């Protein structure tokens, strides 16, 4: 019995020794943890006292940086993606508050899907533009939200396929027609545009229209006092009436030659003119006045079929022309004249002094 008790006493002494050793280790660990926590707090205090330079900028300067981040106005910003102002709202709370309180960020709206944009920008594209219902619904919702965020600022809108019943963006635009400054529309027909002809567009400065199926009903848009820049595609004159005399820049695509001549005769104040991709089929010719005089025209870019460009330049007089871009067919008119002779005839007739000449090949 004495041996058993002695063993227990020895065992307890060993346990007590281990407890003391562990207690000493725990004390050392607690001291180490305490030192680490002190170092951690010092690091946190330094971080909390640090201000990122961009966050120290005044709101006015941040607004200016945001505006320069986007495509220059009136080029529209995409609804989503890197160049969308929506991206700025996802960085931090302060940036979101600033972006949402800056109407300039939301006044240029692109409602055209990226996969359709290259097709629309092509000078020879007349194929149907596909739009899925998901994009239509989202574009309309985001477009309405952006218009609301833009406050009372002028608007730059680019949209496609507006006469699709499932994409009634016109119902969103019409209440804000007085703010429209730059408008680009790719339409299946001219029917939706008729809704814009009943009231004036007092701020409209540029208009870009492409009619996939031409104009089936006349469109008259004359109460646009600030309109100066027009781009038209697949238009049949006199189906559309614009204040041609007040325009300074005009681009015409896929339009009959006779219609072009009639428009130009009414556009005496043009400074820039681009004529691209004439219609393949032409109606009977009956409008044949001797010359088309464009006294202020300085820049002319022409891409025509060879048999059309000949007659066009024979009837054109542009005394202020400085920049000419024309196909090589222009230099073959006049019964096989040399290029220098053809150019000399046109310059002599117009009395212009060219500064830049580009010869293109169709």
UniProtKB/TrEMBL annotation:
Residues 55-111 form the F-box domain. Keywords: Coiled coil. Pfam families: F-box-like (PF12937). InterPro entries: F-box-like_dom_sf, F-box_dom. The keyword Magnesium does not apply. Residues 12-39 form a coiled coil. This is F-box domain-containing protein. It comes from Favolaschia claudopus. The lineage of its organism: Eukaryota, Fungi, Dikarya, Basidiomycota, Agaricomycotina.
């Amino acid at each position: 019995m004495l041996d058993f008790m002695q063993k227990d006493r020895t065992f307890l002494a060993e346990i007590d020794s281990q407890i003391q050793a562990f207690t000493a280790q725990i004390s050392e660990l607690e001291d180490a943890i305490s030192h680490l926590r002190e170092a951690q707090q010092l690091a946190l205090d330094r971080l909390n006292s640090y201000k990122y330079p961009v966050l120290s900028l005044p709101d006015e300067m941040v607004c200016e940086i945001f505006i320069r981040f986007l495509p220059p106005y009136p080029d529209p910003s995409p609804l989503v993606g890197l160049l969308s102002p929506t991206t700025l709202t996802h960085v931090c709370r302060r940036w979101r508050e600033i972006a949402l309180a800056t109407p300039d960020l939301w006044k240029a709206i692109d409602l055209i899907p990226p996969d359709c944009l290259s097709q629309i920008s092509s000078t020879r594209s007349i194929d149907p533009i596909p739009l899925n219902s998901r994009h239509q619904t989202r574009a309309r919702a985001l477009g309405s939200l952006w218009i609301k965020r833009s406050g009372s600022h002028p608007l730059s809108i680019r949209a496609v396929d507006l006469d699709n019943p499932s994409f009634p963006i016109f119902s969103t635009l019409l209440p804000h027609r007085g703010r429209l400054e730059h408008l680009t529309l790719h339409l299946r027909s001219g029917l939706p545009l008729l809704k814009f002809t009943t009231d004036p567009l007092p701020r409209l400065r540029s208009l870009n229209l492409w009619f996939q199926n031409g104009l089936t009903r006349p469109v008259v848009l004359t109460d646009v006092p600030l309109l100066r820049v027009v781009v038209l595609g697949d238009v049949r004159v006199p189906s559309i009436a614009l204040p041609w005399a007040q325009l300074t820049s005009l681009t015409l695509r896929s339009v009959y030659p006779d219609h072009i001549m009639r428009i130009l005769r009414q556009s005496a104040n043009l400074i820039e003119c681009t004529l691209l991709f004439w219609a393949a089929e032409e109606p009977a010719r009956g409008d044949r006045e001797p010359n088309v005089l464009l006294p202020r025209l300085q820049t002319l870019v022409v891409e025509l079929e060879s048999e059309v460009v000949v007659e066009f330049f024979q009837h054109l007089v542009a005394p202020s022309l400085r920049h000419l871009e024309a196909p090589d067919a222009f230099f073959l008119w006049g019964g096989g004249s040399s290029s220098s002779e053809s150019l000399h005839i046109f310059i002599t007739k117009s009395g212009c002094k060219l500064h830049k000449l580009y010869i293109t090949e169709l």
